[in-house]
Amino acid sequence: MSADQQKPDIAVVILAAGQGSRMKSDLPKVLHKLGAVPMVGHALAAARSLDPSRLIVVAGHGAQAVTDAVAKLDDQARIAMQTEQLGTGHAVAQTLPLLDGFEGRVIVLYGDTPFISEATLSDLSGHDAEIVVLGFEAADPGRYGRLVTDADGNLERIVEFKDGDEATRAIRLCNSGVMAVDAAILRRFIADLNNDNASGEYYLTDIPGLARAAGHRAAVVTCREEETLGVNSRAELAQAEAIFQSRRRAEALADGITLTAPETVWFALDTHLGRDAIIGPNVVFGPGVTVESGAEILGFCHLEGCHVSAGATVGPFARLRPGAELGGDAHVGNFVEIKNTVLDEGVKVGHLTYLGDAHIGEHTNIGAGTVTCNYDGVMKHRTEIGRNAFIGSNTMLVAPVRVGDNAMTASGSVITEDVPSEALGLGRSRQVTKEGLASRIMQSLREERSKRDKS
After folding, report:
1. C-alpha to C-alpha distance for 66 and 57, rounded to whole angstroms
2. Most buried by CB count within 10 Å: which residue of 117, 204, 303, 340?
3. For residue 268, what is the DSSP state?
4. What percentage of the chain exceeds 70 in pLDDT?
């Protein structure tokens, strides 16, 4: 498409109605996770790269679960229902009411095909043919459908493996199932589909042949076979995960991020790492993590739904849960768990601590063994700690509670009331010492043991 041509209006349809019986699972196939998010999330992300005016997901098997997951992943996507799985053509037909009035190009993707690249989708959406099918040269064509082209490379028809003769099966140009179709063509020919084939299904792949017979042009865009990888079994899911992680590790290294042991770092689809971030070995990123430039995540940490600012350090053996916000130069050490808590600039949480539902002011020090007791069995409550405070080791902060600026708590305290600024909060039982009692107790125990041994 030349620069002076207007970009076509795009609608994307994602087919996600199948059961995926080979997964041997009660979970709909497209909800199995890849890169820490459901597979359909990858298709939604790819679709969003086209800035579509309409985005439709076709749900069927496990429809409510798919609908709920899609709503969390993309609240602008709309759902079309395919109550009976009668083939890809039948699935797309269910989207026509949601495409009413749309006159642009419809791109059909699959919820279990996670690796279609933005460049490939751009080629599909920008091609001048009325129908464009995505094909690939397969190392082992196997049971893929074949793309039959004419001498000029135009697409004549798509033949499913079950319906092909020996000559057709010898063709190495295979069908990915992904296609772009002008909306008017789609509406016209989807009504003409029939299920007179070996599977008894309504094939979307019959549309290019019908349109070509009516004088319309169909073309093929090709991509690498890896982009078309579909996930139909647990083994293929593991293969896809390996491909995804390998790609993300390579991208991170190329972007100026240090991975000290790349093969041990696990990324989510939406992990964002800034330049000069340092990631140690055996780090796992769940969804929703941003690590800014110059921050360091030491080994054996698990992060999800959190933000780590420039200059901060995390770990080793730390866990950041959703809602954790670390300010610049903050430090979270080993065996620390942070949840729904903001650490302002320069906060130090060295080790063996749980902070949940809290806000910690800048340059405050949190001693080892500190716990914010945020849950009363029914409700969650917040802890507020001011600037430059010092929280002694093994302090229990029973929320809701506030510790002011420059305040302290004594080690071993249970703090149940607010501690004003610059005050010391001390809440622990008075120590009682019984002289000689320890030796008498031990002597009594030894005598008792001796009696048992003799009896």
Report:
1. 9
2. 303
3. -
4. 98
- What's the sign of the alpha-carbon dihedral 13, 19, 21, 24? positive
Q: How far, CA to CA in Å, does 125 sit from each of 104, 105, 135, 402?
A: 10, 7, 15, 57
- Centre a 10 Å sphere on the Cβ of residue 203 and count the other Cβ atoms it contains: 22
The pLDDT tens digits of the residues spanning 390-421 come to 999 999 999 999 999 999 999 999 999 999 99
Please classify residue 49 by burial: count the beta carbons closer than 10 Å to its beta carbon, then call 0-12 exposed, 13-18 middle and 19+ buried: middle
Helix (H, G, I), strand (E, B) or coil at 262: helix
Alpha-helix runs per DSSP H in 230-310? 234-254
Quote the tokens at residue 324.
């954790």
301 Cβ partners below 8 Å, 6+ apart?
Answer: 280, 283, 284, 314, 315, 316, 317, 318, 319, 320
pLDDT given at position 5: 53
- Residue 368: Cβ within 10 Å count: 18
Burial classification of residue 235, based on how many CB atoms lie within 10 Å of its CB (0-12 exposed, 13-18 middle, 19 or more buried): exposed
Annotated catalytic residue 32 = no
As a whole number of angstroms, the distance between CA 276 and CA 297 comes to 12
Q: Hey, which bits of 67-153 come out as E strands?
A: 78-81, 105-110, 131-137, 146-149
Q: How many CB atoms lie within 10 A of CB 276?
A: 15
Q: Could you say which of 42, 302, 351, 381 is catalytic?
A: 351
Token representation of residue 204: 């979307």
How do residues 129-187 score in pLDDT, each as one tens digit? 999 999 999 888 888 899 999 988 899 989 988 888 888 888 999 999 999 999 999 99
Where helices occur in 23-87 by DSSP H, the ranges are 39-48, 63-73
Condensed to tens digits (0 to 9), the pLDDT of residues 434-450 reads: 999 999 999 999 999 99
In order of 219, 275, 318, the CA distances from 325 in angstroms are 50, 19, 14
Peptide bond connecting 400 to the previous residue in cis, omega within 30 degrees of 0? yes
